[in-house]
Task: structure prediction
Amino acid sequence: VQLVTSGGGLVQPGGSLILSCEASGFTFSDYSMRWYRQAPGKERELIAAILVPGDNTNYAASVQGRFSISRDNAKNAVNLQIGNLTPEDTGVYSCGSTIRGRQYWGQGTLVTVSS
Result:
């Protein structure tokens, strides 16, 4: 199983980014996918999920209405569109999934929100 995240960078408050996670090593369409964020000095938190079957989505209250998770099964990819960013959104963003009973995370991509 491999999860490779990309798309982070420096963005001004109020700005937006699209983060991507490319998956391999498992049947992507069979598994729910999640995005996590670890802010400096804080624990990793679950912020968004897209669930199978049905592709229902869930969000943490802190990102509801500003972030949007989606998946492209043809590309084995899950994306996270993040918007209306504030400095509190700064952190390392990683995707993850539980595959055959084991939790996997990507390496993460850093998002820094600063003017």
Observations:
- Residues 49 and 58 are 5 Å apart (CA to CA).
- The chain has a mean pLDDT of 97.
- The two ends are 37 Å apart (CA to CA).
